[in-house]
Amino acid sequence: MPKLTPPVSQFVSVDGVRLHYQVVGQDTPRLPVIFTHGGGPGSTAWSNFRLSAETFATRHRCYFLDFAQFGRSDMVPVHGPLLGWHARKLLGFMDALGLERVHLINQSLGGAVALRLAADSPQRVGRLISIGAQPVDRGVLQPLPLFSKHAATLMSDYYLADDGPSISKMRVLLGRYELHNDELLDDENLHLRFEASDNAGFIQLLQTPGAFGEWESLLPVLDQVQAPTLLCWGLHDWFGSVDVPMMMLNRLPDARLHVFGNAAHHLQSECPDEFNRLALSFIGAHE
Question: Is residue 2 in some structural domain?
Fold first, then answer.
């Protein structure tokens, strides 16, 4: 699997919040692609999608954006509904860089934010791919494990317990929550995630009441998403069974679902060749 050297860090200010991003690929007549990341400790757009960079950079200008509270972006509190807050910053990022219309490829939290943006500003999104996104509080049959007593301590266990972030704790976390096959965890990703998680500013946010905004379900607005949408799901995703994207599939006007049988929450890391072929084919249908 080809890997690019991490691109140079760049920054832009949106509503007074400094956002970190990286760029690969040259300008082409095709729509640019923005990659966004999940919400786990140490998540960044580059670490989540670095195995897709080479594939997409040959055809598209690619932007890897870190949300506020992640990576090298500002560690600031979120006010109000979480997904709407981040979606406004994502839209502001597009405006600041002069990106009138883009494709969005997104992991988990990033997928939920992208769907919020696509519902609010449908003219700005070409096609949308989400991986393991759960912008709802339940599937067809049961509540999401994301809201269970067990998952509620995921962040505090990593950041606050047992002397805080460490390589060994990150290794356990990635194997338990994000991968189906632990042997597919590579050292580069492990170190990228740990380095991004070892952040005193984020620990301060964890100790600040209300710093992470209010959770919101997008179930009432999914029918406003006009962009053709590809929902990707790992069969072994701990954060929810396939009934979660099935519920979303039934609400989105133009969606399809692809289930990866040998993957969990970060299927683009476990099955990069399969994901890249699928994603490029889907995006390529609308240049």
Answer: no
Residue 27 included in any domain: yes
* DSSP output for 261-285: TT--S-HHHHSHHHHHHHHHHHHHT
Q: pLDDT 10s digit of each residue in the chain, 287 long?
A: 456 788 999 999 999 999 999 999 988 899 999 999 999 999 999 999 999 999 999 999 999 999 999 999 999 999 999 999 999 999 999 999 999 999 999 999 999 999 999 999 999 999 999 999 999 876 666 666 666 655 667 888 899 988 999 999 999 999 999 999 999 999 999 999 999 999 999 999 999 999 999 999 999 999 999 999 999 999 999 888 899 999 999 999 999 999 999 999 999 999 999 999 999 999 985 55
pTM of the model: 0.95
Give long-range contacts, CB 8 A cutoff, 24+ apart: 54-58: 54/2, 54/3, 54/4, 55/2, 55/276, 55/280, 56/25, 56/105, 56/276, 56/279, 56/280, 56/283, 57/4, 57/24, 57/25, 58/25
Please tell me the distance from the alpha carbon of residue 59 to that of residue 276, in angstroms, as a whole number. Answer: 13
CA atoms within 13 A on the CB side of 245: 25
Residue range(s) defining the domain that contains residue 29:
10-284
* Residue 185 is assigned to a structural domain of this protein: yes
Give the CATH number for residue 178: 3.40.50.1820
Write down the H helix ranges in the chain.
Answer: 45-57, 82-96, 109-120, 154-159, 167-173, 187-197, 200-206, 243-251, 267-270, 272-284
| Cα gap 17→144, rounded to integer Å | 31
Residue type, 124: R
How many domains, in total, are found in the chain? 1
In a domain, 5, yes or no: no
